[in-house]
Amino acid sequence: MAGKRIAPATHSIAELVFHMTSWRIFCVKKMQGDETFDITTPDKNFGALPDKIDDFEWEALEMELSLSQEELINELDKRDDDEFLEDIVPGRDYTYYDMLHGIINHDMYHTGQIMILRKALTFKGAGSRFADDDADEYGSPFGSSQEHDDYY
Description:
Elements: H1 13-31, H2 42-46, H3 55-77, H4 96-124
Helix pairs in contact: 1-3, 1-4
């Protein structure tokens, strides 16, 4: 499921996880003082992943995401206080405060996307738990909404 797309011009779950990891690594590099590190190509941003992601590849993506989080936490733990938050990120024109809040918002946004994609792929995917002969015209096995009008 991680490599599937709901439409041709969309990202897969695996690509979104790769993307989240890339930007966490960006934050780690900036916290380490790397002025030149940047994510400048689509391959660095969303990866050049195959359409079919096997279990090994998925576990590797999950592990890299987890490790990038640990690295970011380790960089934050090196700081004695929060005064660095007012400093400008090397090679950028914004503060560490903005960067760190940005990565939190970024990850929340893409986590929401992943959950929606997961539901959409489960609903329309082959072998879906909703692939049922009892499904209505919308794919729901629970019947049409007209059957429950008196409930609302």
